[in-house]
Each structure stands twice: as structure tokens, then as C-alpha cells.
Specification:
Largest sheet: 7 strands, mixed
Distance between the termini: 50 Å
Radius of gyration: 19 Å
CATH topology of the largest domain: Phosphoribosyl-aminoimidazole Synthetase, Chain A, domain 2
Number of domains: 2
Strand content: 15-25%
Structural class: alpha+beta
Number of helices: 11
CATH superfamily of the largest domain: PurM-like C-terminal domain
CATH class of the largest domain: Alpha Beta
Strand order of the largest sheet: 8-11-7-12-9-13-10
Length: 349
Amino acid sequence: MNIKLTEHSKGGGCGCKISPAILSEILAAHNVGAKTNVKNLLVGNDSRDDAAVYQLDEKMAMISTTDFFMPIVDDAFAFGQIAAANAISDVYAMGGKPIFALAVLGWPLATLPASEAAKVMEGARKTCTEAGIVIAGGHSIDSQDPIFGLVVNGLVDIENLKRNDTAKEGDVLILTKPLGVGIMATAQKRAVLTEEDLNFLVKQLTTINKAGEALGKIKEVHAMTDVTGFGLLGHLTEMMEGSNLSASIHYDKLPIIPAVRNYIAQKTIPGATARNWSSVSDGVVLGPGVDEAEAKLLLPDPQTNGGLLIAVAPSALKEVQTILQAMGIEYFNPIGECTAAKEKRIYID
């Protein structure tokens, strides 16, 4: 029996995320965003960072995060790999080293066999092994849609901790994976994605962002985050708002999945794209030379296990690029720079 997981869920990957605007409304009701006074909590709800961080002693802190979603690909094993990589990425984005994970599984037992859930777990274990950790436990429920993810805990030297709100004026910005995952995944769900492009998509989605741990040791890397469900614009906006800066992005320098324009022409656009654009568009200026129609589809495209967005001082750019290249990362050239705060947060030229 050829089971296609995406036929059993209404959404997929980080495109399932609630939009930034609605999330703000939900969290505002509980005063989330206010500065917490919990002793030793270095990163909490007062910033929209990738994970919570709790100080253990004078030197070390624990990073804790959770991420889960519905299938972004049809294959159960690959779905497990992708969901695990996406969750682990939040620890890497903080400059940390993951140490163990807990599984979060929801499975529609009335419509999908338990053997498919076992494949999901098998895929997740493979990714965890690559990251040097184990799945030490977890929780499962019988749910209407297939859902999988991890709770991931990690460690970081406090001096190496990277936040998403500490970029500095003059920093250059790097994005380590190409954009277009949401569009490609939607093409797969509509059965128009070619085999070659599916292979490219799965390879990108299952690649862990292990470089974050090494980058955490570079003092001149001032801020870091991973680009996921809110798209490049959403996560860059969080970085700029938190750092009280603006960003100048060069559209022709952005890494873009080579085949994605073929699928834009076929209108395989995820529903979350419009919601993402609506949430941040008031703070974005598209220059006269930018293809506005394309930019509004690619820049807010929801990414799953997307690349690291790195803000680094120009003096350490070569060092960062050397690390990325040594880890086999093809995308290491700057896409823009951080500037003093202007009327808008993001300028695209």
C-alpha cells in the first residue's frame, strides 16, 4: 500500500504555524512578552527567540525548545527526519549543543497504520544520531491529523549564547539555505513536483544546522536565528525589531531554490504565505528594481528547517565563511547588512 502522509493532514511543516499577527494576539492576553523575573532565566517570553535558556551555573546554561507539525512530505521516514532536524535546529540557532530529545507524536490510528508511525520514529532517530543525541522518551496521543516533533534540550557556554535580538549596526547578514521550501512542498502535495526536485527538497529539509554550534564560539557573530514558518521576512523582522535596527537586503543576493520559479508559475503557493506577508508588510519596502509579485511569494514563504540567519561583524566574515564551507554549506555570501533604525524595518533593493 502506497501511503501518502500529506493526504492525511490539512497543513504541513512549519507552514502549520499560527501567523505572527494572530500569535501576538494570543500571547498578549497572557502578558507574554513582558520581562520575566524568574531567577536564572536568561531567555524567556520577553523575546521571540528560538528557545528558552536557563542558567545552570556561572559558566553553563541549558537550552530547551519544542517543535512539531503535520507532514510536509509523503514518506513517513523522511517526515521523521525532517521534524527532528527542524526541532534540533533551534538549539543550534542559539549556539548550543543538543544533548537529548523527547518525542511528541499524534497519530490518527483509524486512518493510518501504527507501522507508519514507527517509520516516523525511525527517521527521527536517524537524524538524532547524526546530531549525537538520543530520543530519551516522549508522549503520544491518538489524533485527527498525523503530528510529530521533538522537545530538545541542549547546553551552551553562556559566553557563546546567541540570541535573535542582539544584532549590531554594520553587521552583515548571511542565510545558509535557499528559500522556496513552502512552494516546493505545496507542489508535492498537488502532485506536480518532479522526482529530481523532490530529492533536492528532502535533502535540504533533512540537513541539520550543525554549523550553529561552531558559530556560537565566534564572538563577532552577534545574533543568530533559524528561518522557519514565518519566512525570511518574519524572522528578519523579529531580529531587527529586537535589535532596534533596520536591514538592507539585496534581492539578487538571496539564495533561492533553483527550480522554485517553475512552481510559482504553477501557483503552488502555501496558504501561510499571504498570512506571513500581511503580518510584516507594513515594515517592508520593496525597491523599484525588485520583482514585487515574486518577492511577495518568496520572502514570506514558510520554511521548514530553514537556514541559519546570521548577523556577523565584517571583521569575522571570512572566519564564518570558512566554517560554513568546511561543513559543506554552499550558501555563505552576505545577503545584506544591518543599518541604524529607519522608518521601516526592512528595505529590499
